[in-house]
Amino acid sequence: MIDKAIPLSGLSVGQLAYVRRISGHPDHVHRLEEFGLRGGTRVQMFRRGSPCIIRMAGNKVCFRADDLLRILVEPETASS
User: Which of 3, 11, 29, 73 is the most exposed place for a label (fewest CB within 10 A)?
Assistant: First the structure.
């Protein structure tokens, strides 16, 4: 199976994706999980950049990803 995961920053505005992996300091990862951002969560890019804004479960979440926090997503396809 081919891993189609890309960095969250690689999404275009409006593009949908599913979170595959979050890596970084355990406290930072845990904080994102408290917001509901975890593996399998469907997200939509609202605004790119740093900070970026994503839509998730009807809410907007703003955060700064950096070299210490890596979020990999799998873009949604028409067949997803």
Answer: 3
